[in-house]
Amino acid sequence: MPADQPPNNLLSATLPEADVNLQLGRADDLRAEVFLTIVLPMAIPAGTRLSLAATLTGPESTRATTLPVRLPIRTVSKQTADGTPQVTGTVILTEPAYWTPEVPMLYRIRGELIAEDGAIARLNTTVGLRRFGVRGHSLWLEGRRWVLRGCDSSGLAAMPQREQEPAGHRGMAQVISLGPDGLATASSTAPSWQQFLEEADRHGQPLLICLDPATPVTLVRSTILALTRHPAVVMVVLPVELLTAAASCKPPAGTLLLAAQVTGSQPPTAPSPGIDVHLVRLPPEGVPAEEWRRPLGPPAIAWSVSSHVDRPACDQFQARLATWRMTGDGPPHDWDWAGFLVGGVSRE
Asked: pTM higher than 0.70, yes or no?
C-alpha cells in the first residue's frame, strides 16, 4: 500500500493504538495548517522508516452540522528525536471549523502507522482546532475577548455533560484536580480520565486541570502533552513546586495555556518562564493586596476560596472585585481581571 494513502480495509483490532499530538500552525477563517506528531506505542529500532496512511474527516458536533471533508494526511518527517524514531504529518484545511464551548467542532483521524514490514499501529482519535491565547491582559478565543468564569469541581463525580451538569454550573468552566499519578489515576467505579476528557470535548465543557504538587517532574511534560489532545482543556495549572517545568513544556503545549497559582494577599511577582496566566487566590470575602492595582506581566484570573461553587457565587465575587477597583487608586482603565473562579480549599 503506498504511503500517505488511507487503508481500504478495516483497521486491525490487534494493532496497538498510537496517540496523536496536534499543533495548529497558521490559521484563519479560510485556512488552517495542522501538524501531527505520532506517539509510538512501542519501541522501534533506530533507523526504521515510518510513514502514515491516514485521513482526517469531519467536522462533527453535538450542536451543529456542516459539510464534511475527507483529507489525506501527508507524511512530512520520518526523522528521529533523541534517538527515538517518530513520524509527523500535516494536513491543510480550507474553511476549518474551530472548537468553542458554544459549538464544539471535532475532527477524526483514522488510519495506520506504517513501517518497512507493514502496519505497526492504528490511528483512531478525535482532535479539535482551537484558536485561543493571550492578548495584553486578557484571554482571547476565536478573535474576541473571553472572560473565563468557573468553579472548582474536583469533587464532582458526574461526567461533564450539559445534561448531567448541575444547573448552577452551566456555562462555567470546571477546575479539576489531578492526582500525583497524572492521567493514570482511575478506578473501577469512576470513568477513566480519557472518557472524561472526551466527553468534555464533545459537549464543549471548558476545563482547567490542576497538577498535584507531588507530581514527579518527569511526568509533568508527558501529562501536559496528553492534555493538549483535548480542546476542552484550556489551561493547566501548575503549583509553585512545578513552575520550573513550565519553560520546557510551553512550546509543545501550543494554544493550551499554562497558569501559576499565586497568593493574592501578597504583591504580584514577575511570571516564571513559560507561564501565560496568574491565578490569584483570595480568602473568603477577601480582596487583593494594593499592589495588584498595578499587576505585572500576564493576565490575572481572580480565584475566591468559597464553599459556594455556582454562577451566582461567581457573579457576587466579580461584583466585589468591581467595588474594589473603584476605591482608592484604582487600576489603569485598560486593565481588568481576565476571569473569575470560585471554590477550592484555602491555601492561605
From this structure: yes
